[in-house]
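Hi all, posting the design record for the shared folder.

TITLE: backbone redesign
STEP: 1 of 1
STRUCTURE INPUT:
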């Protein structure tokens, strides 16, 4: 019991955290994405008072390749380190991390020509503007890239598959102790 009392800290001395959950829409573009692709994404983060935090980011972009492909999509799941300016209303942020990315393309509808799931990285930043303690708007620009080259993928440029994602969406926040 004495050990538990020594280990525990007063509630007022504990670090306060903010939870964030975002859902966004936008476009995948650039790199190996031949035509702009509609993208949906979701992110969940925990940020401490200093601005440092961790984030899970998921996204799905559909119909990214134009000429020669009947169907295509890119999906990703990333674990990121996040730094967000700990300012009440305007919160610019940077984020980067690693995860997995899946690229799929079909020459004919329903016939998969290439599909690869592999390790990837992402890096980017944006701005969160909060209206009150609960709701805000988040704009985000990120770069995604495979770590390795995959010869069977529909590449615009030589090298590993890469693309940019630009999104805007709604963020909900809540205090955590």
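Okay, here is what came back for every position:
SEQUENCE:
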């Amino acid at each position: 019991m004495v050990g538990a009392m020594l280990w525990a800290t007063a509630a007022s001395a504990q670090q306060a955290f903010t939870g964030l959950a975002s859902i966004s829409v936008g476009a995948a573009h650039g790199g190996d994405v031949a035509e702009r692709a509609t993208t949906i994404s979701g992110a969940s983060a925990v940020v401490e008072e200093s601005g440092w935090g961790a984030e899970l980011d998921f996204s799905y972009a559909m119909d990214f390749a134009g000429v020669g492909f009947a169907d295509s999509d890119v999906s990703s799941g990333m674990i990121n380190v996040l730094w967000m300016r700990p300012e009440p209303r305007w919160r610019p942020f940077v984020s980067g991390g690693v995860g997995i990315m899946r690229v799929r393309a079909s020459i004919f509808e329903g016939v998969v020509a290439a599909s690869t799931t592999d390790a990837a990285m992402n890096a980017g930043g944006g701005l969160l503007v909060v209206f009150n303690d609960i709701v805000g708007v988040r704009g985000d620009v990120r770069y995604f890239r495979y770590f390795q080259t995959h010869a069977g993928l529909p590449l615009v440029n030589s090298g590993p598959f890469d693309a940019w994602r630009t999104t805007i969406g709604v963020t909900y926040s809540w205090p955590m102790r």
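COMMENT: Strands lie at 17-29, 37-48, 52-62, 71-84, 90-108, 111-130, 135-146, 162-176.
Let me know if anyone wants the other runs.
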